[in-house]
């Protein structure tokens, strides 16, 4: 029971039938109102006196009202800018896009799109338009238009990723999603979690926190030497699942951040589900870099960022949860969407700037436009083009440096590829701090934005390709690194061979 001291003057805001049926007691006391009465209601039947958010409450809007709101939203979207020549959007790709299509410093060569992405200029303009709409009438926007617009964007995104809209929620980023998903697992001290040596650092911390709370055991499988061979990758994981199971859940990266390599997530998910193990896929780098079909993938949980390879506004990502587990995944912020299910509970976390979410419709409108060559959509042509260019650029660097790619299988790379660096002069040792010093030197001294990484005791550089990149960008990197190369250590003079005594 919850005590609710309500003056009779305010009873007009309550349903009198509910009040008459559920008053449990009249409690006298020094804090009574003028009527001399206080009422006690069971918590589960307290009337909903929220100020609005009609779209989050079933039955609050009529179909006619919804159609009117839909027309208003479509009118706003019709005013949002998109590039003029969508038919040749990918064909015209190159360095000119840095300033026309994107908002990048044209004096820099950007080869690290993977870390934080780059927002399309038209998407930033769309976000600003949605902010203006919100500020023009905040009451109507937040109470009715915003929840409805978010729901429409979720539906559009769900169609693209092969999921049902009722299984998808928007979140600020993949780290938020992974924190939410790992925290939702009903773990006990007798459970086990499986991760890999290349699980993203922030996610490892989520897992460590889950272990601290529940006492569960965490096992980590080493996959570094099998990244180039998907069959061996799956076989190793399956062997661990078989020998060390059962596992409550396993976590895999769709695209590994450090290496830029693609994991065989559908096969990994199948191996886990055959053994009763839930599967969480961290797809932070996948959306816009790889095709995603969650209906076929077989994961129980999945998340990805839209701000990276789909070039959406910062703070836009999604989380997918299989229906049978949605009751366990509750938002950390409980607001007006409760208790109306997974989608509505995550759709509203209080007054916030939702313009990034809403501008996702502009992103999808652009990337889902049919491609000029008739082979699919703009996003498909962009993924093929970026894959081809980054591999050409990576192999160019490898030739210039006399090194090689991390993996000799082109198919395990998407729009990123990782190349081993040659020995370098100066403080650029094969360590995390050495990589940071190299990144600063390349940016400050050569106007190159890069991502050096230390793998297996050697220094690599993870290269990205987005529509603003071209092959000349990788040549600039190759030349800059060659300027930093350490002179080869001369081979020691051979010892003189003594004459044989006769």
3D structure, described in words:
The N terminus and C terminus are likely disordered. Helix 2 crosses helix 6 and helix 9 packs parallel to helix 10. The protein has 17 helices and 14 strands. The strands form four sheets. A seven-stranded mixed beta sheet has the order 4-10-9-8-7-5-6, with helices on both faces. By secondary structure, the chain is α/β, with parallel strands linked by helices. It is globular, with a radius of gyration of 28 Å.
What is the topological layout?
Elements: E1 2-4, H1 16-22, E2 39-41, H2 63-78, H3 97-100, E3 109-110, H4 113-116, H5 121-136, H6 138-161, E4 168-171, H7 174-184, E5 192-196, H8 201-214, E6 217-221, H9 230-244, E7 249-253, H10 265-273, E8 278-282, H11 294-297, E9 301-305, E10 317-321, H12 342-347, H13 355-358, H14 360-367, H15 378-401, E11 416-420, H16 432-446, E12 448-449, E13 452-455, E14 458-464, H17 471-483
Parallel strand pairs: 3-12, 5-6, 5-7, 7-8, 8-9
Antiparallel strand pairs: 1-2, 4-10, 9-10, 11-14, 13-14
Helix pairs in contact: 2-6, 5-6, 7-8, 9-10, 15-17
